[in-house]
């Protein structure tokens, strides 16, 4: 019981929360245009800030949607999330809206689940918002 409480306190102190993570196929296509996402243009848009036109232009291993992004041109566009599941970690750059939790490219969920994204569909993972450099350095 003490170990459980210590783990819960550590997770709360770090800002980590159990979050639903699913995969969405468009985030795995390098040709997907950012103008087709919530974070393409506008003052907070990733095309405006960085000049990226497609997912393939983004120097992040994985991109996806986050429920923090609740509207077009959200100031949450470009947040980076650390996703931990069964001793595996991936980082995802938020480029779009997600209704509940996070949606990531299938490759990201496959990496977390040993190739079982399709079979599982969704997982409950520990998610922590981290500095954007974690996503933009190829993690």
UniProtKB/TrEMBL annotation:
Coiled coil: none annotated. Residues 1-18 form the signal peptide. It is found in: Secreted. Its main location: secreted. One of its GO terms (cellular component) is extracellular region. Keywords: Secreted, Signal. This is Cerato-platanin.
């Amino acid at each position: 019981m003490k170990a459980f409480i210590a783990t819960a306190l550590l997770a709360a102190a770090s800002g980590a929360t159990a979050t639903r993570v699913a995969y969405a196929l468009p985030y795995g296509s390098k040709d997907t245009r950012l103008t087709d996402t919530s974070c393409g243009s506008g003052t907070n848009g990733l095309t405006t800030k960085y000049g990226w036109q497609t997912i393939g232009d983004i120097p992040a291993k994985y991109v996806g949607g986050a429920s923090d992004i609740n509207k077009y041109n959200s100031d949450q566009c470009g947040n980076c999330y650390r996703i931990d599941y069964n001793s595996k970690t991936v980082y995802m750059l938020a480029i779009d809206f997600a209704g509940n939790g996070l949606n990531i490219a299938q490759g990201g969920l496959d990496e977390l689940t040993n190739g079982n994204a399709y079979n599982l569909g969704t997982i409950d993972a520990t998610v922590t918002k981290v500095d954007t450099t974690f996503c933009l350095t190829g993690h």
